[in-house]
Amino acid sequence: MPAEALEPDSDLLSLPCTWMRGGTSKAAFFHAKDLPADPAARDALVLAAMGHAEPRQIDGIGGGHPLTTKVAIVSPSDDPRADVDYLFGQVVATESRIDYAPTCGNILSAVGPFALDEGLVQAQQGQSVVRIRMVNTDSHCDAVVQTPGARVRYGGDTAISGVPGRAAPVELRFSGFLGSSCGALLPTGEARERIDGIEVTCIDNGMPVVLMRAADLGVSGDETPAELDADAALKARIESVRLQAGQRMGLGDVSAKVVPKVTLVSAPRQGGTFNTRTFIPRKCHDAIGVLGAVSVASACVVPGTVMQGLSDIATGPAEPLHDLSVEHPTGEFTVRLLMDATGHAIAGAALLRTARPLFRGQVLVPQFQNRQETP
Ligand code: NQM
Question: How remote is the CA of residue 139 from the centroid of ligand 1, in Å?
Fold first, then answer.
């Protein structure tokens, strides 16, 4: 049901919404049919629901942090390879806008359960595979959801770093998203190059990311996100590299975009493959994004990247798959890279997340605020 007045005389609109955790992020889920078709009117409505124009999102449901002010707009797909379309939006609250340039793999993990719960896809006995088209990057994912008795089961034994407790696994299987946003796995044509005198690798396997060694920026890579966020000089250097990398990666002027992300890599501390601190892109992530992690892990299997010296996979023997443990500030994240018949080139990726609905109902949107924004 599209947004409608709460009561005949009310100046609040009532809009169907499900608030979901997907992996280590949270988003408001909307059916595309409930939102205006016109993108400007849609964004004005969604921004008013989420809260904007100041960082705390005090007059909306957004969480005042990039990881908790996300939006998923879901609809049946007309793509024969997909059941549903998933349009991701990153609300940039302080700038009163929604960035549709990136997709989000954490929120992606909640799309399958949402589609099944909402009847967009018929649940099967045991497990259900929801075929998802990620509209932002025009790439695809198969989400395997636990559905004993043909209902979504949220409880289970899977733990993911950054989320307390255990829950049912959602397996995400990706293929064919090399160069999802930039057109090539190595968008600049180089495995390693210099920007501002620092060696970087620009890579896109689902998410455009600029990799640098933490040591090359004068940090250890062990710092907490709060410590890194407080380092204004470091963040200025990172942003300078990111702006130049964005141009080289074919993304144009990225000063107002949230891609590419930036990941600082260093030696593993807890027995993983390597350690990370990721900027998304102006705030340090408490963990690491899903597709960000896939892109960073992918650099391990490409010869000559800045991962050389941290991981010897690229120069090792051919393998059908590699499990890479990506360490981050709140734990680790295992990315499975599936290799092609040569054993040296990436054919796909798979990983586990958990997800669940946090509330389902109606978000109330002030019409008076909408009127000011869209005269
Ligand atoms: O990289 C954060 C997150 C993300 C995105 C970000 C994500 C991904 O943790 O696919 O999941 O990079 O802004 O939700």
Answer: 16
